[in-house]
Design goal:
Strand content: 5-15%
Helix content: 55-70%
Radius of gyration: 24 Å
Structural class: mainly alpha
Largest sheet: 2 strands, antiparallel
Strand order of the largest sheet: 1-2
Order of helices and strands: HHHEEHHHHEE
Shape: elongated
């Protein structure tokens, strides 16, 4: 318990809560920074950019290679759609920034889970009291209302607006992201 408390003190409880909290201002600031940095990264690896030419599929059998027509195969179209979504996830700086931010928030939540711990069955009778002690310490450091508000915010759906509300663009509708377990 003392080591866990020392780790929490090193991290600073306020900083930990700020790290986990999902703040819209922080998100918009982060997206702005990503846009600025992406302008500087234009000279990066050109092979990673999307190609305008369609994908070509080849099939080899008995030493002969044939080109397949993807328009006739629903499986190939599905594969192309999946490849396009993976490419989008890897190359879109806004999506990468959001995924990085979510990964950091998950690490903060993992820290809280590990800090609280869980009683091991059959180890000793002190495990439940240690868990209670860690929960009480966390609440005393962070505050009960603040802790539960941050945890509850992780369970709420998020609404993403791709552009400003004044200029609606077709094909870029508002999306709702529901919390998902990994």
């Amino acid at each position: 318990p003392d080591l866990k408390k020392a780790c929490l003190e090193q991290l600073q409880p306020g900083w930990l809560m700020q790290l986990i909290r999902d703040d819209d201002q922080e998100t918009s600031f982060f997206a702005l920074k990503v846009k600025e940095s992406s302008a500087d990264d234009l000279d990066e690896d050109m092979d990673m950019q999307q190609s305008d030419e369609p994908l070509r599929w080849f099939f080899g059998t008995n030493g002969t290679i044939r080109e397949l027509d993807a328009s006739r195969s629903s499986r190939l179209r599905q594969a192309e759609d999946r490849l396009a979504s993976v490419r989008e996830a890897e190359l879109n700086p806004t999506r990468k920034a959001r995924n990085d931010k979510l990964a950091i928030q998950e690490q903060g939540l993992d820290f809280i889970r590990n800090f609280i711990g869980r009683p091991e069955s059959g180890v000793s009778s002190e495990a439940p009291s240690e868990t209670t002690e860690m929960i009480d310490h966390l609440i005393s450091q962070v505050g009960q209302d603040r802790l539960f508000e941050v945890l509850a915010s992780k369970l709420r759906s998020k609404v993403l607006h791709p552009f400003s509300r004044r200029t609606p663009v077709s094909g870029r509708e508002t999306r709702v992201l529901h919390p998902q377990a990994k």
